[in-house]
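Quick look at the format.
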Amino acid sequence: MSVLDTRIDDLYQQPLNEFTSGRNALAKSLTGADAQRVRALAKPTVVPWAVNQVYWRARAAYDRLMKSGERLRTAQIAALEGRPADVRAAGETHRRAIAEAVAEAERLAAPAGSKPSPDALARTFEALSLATKAPDAPGRLTGALQPAGFEALAGLTPKVSPGPAKAGHYRRPAENAHGTRTGRVRLPPDRDLKRERAEAEAARVRAAALARQARKRDAELESAGAAVERAEAAERVARASWERAHDELLEARRRRSDLKV
């Protein structure tokens, strides 16, 4: 790893409100392509920033999450291919790892006054741990993620269980290395294949609909969070104004009392 990459990693470990000033200071200390690269670094939002802190400051929990996600994905693939797999146990272990990672993220964010959404954290941790490819630069996430759903297993074909054979329903006989036909292989009825394909397509449509709903919910949560932050800021301004007015009132009463004496 280059010295610059190490300094960039340090940047993503800083408190979120110090990211922009730290990035600008780092860019000013560089020239040419290095300076341009640093200036182009995106500031994380609060959820990915908290996820990054788990990677940097609670690596054991992060590693458990990634390993449990890999085991769950392996079990899902095995089940789709018709091989023995305990998907339920792998799923339970993965859910516990996600819960642990969320708790660590909330703990690490608290001292900075940040309150990332637990649901958004869980979805981002799930997406990270079930991805088919590890992130190019772990610890530098800049945006919240959504779990991929069925498309994460794209390219896999579920194994079709053989159904009752129909008379005369055959595949072309296979041949061995010597060109000798080895016999006929019976196929399941067409109606079974059609039904299973229809069920798979329906599952894909449901997964896509759920993904759209999740994205819509995330947008609504983000909008609501921004509204809460604006209201809290307005409350702080109003409270400060009230406290100043109250202090001025008390001071005016004190002066009046002094004059009466």
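Next, a different chain entirely:
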Amino acid sequence: MGLTADLGGTGNPTVGADSFTTLTPTLYFGKGMGDLPDSVWALRPLAVTGTFGQAFATSAESSDSFNFGLAVEYSFPYLEGSVKDIGLPAPFKDMIPLVELSTSTDENGDTRGQFTGTINPGVLWETRYFQLGLEAIVPLNSASGPHVGAMMKVDIFIDDIFPSVFGFPIFGGEN
């Protein structure tokens, strides 16, 4: 469980940033297939994760919405390191192909019942210190937009880069 906050007034309104805050209590779920028997070893690197969230806008002029997301991933690093080394060459042995689905349904206001969403096929490339991701963003319907887009992300694992500074409890525990 978690809570996300989209803080209003923190972005440029010309690109769609809202002036109001939206709070979204969220339920996260996931299942990795690593506990499957060895006879189906090829399925063990598969994982399914998702979210259910209820978004509440702090402005009466905006719609609350129900959000649902789902991701299916296949981890070649897990396959090579924990299941079976099939001899994948670099950089493929460090890749995670995935498909994400992101949807939202407005619940009140002028857009009540409007469904929007995207399906995002892509790939992650993971090292010990960072992860690069590239995904296409494909609208599911006309309300979601008219064009296919792309997204690139970079995650830096600072606790692995600076293990003597990060990666241990701040309060309690030992360094």
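The CA atoms of residues 134 and 154 lie 9 Å apart.

See the schema section for token definitions.
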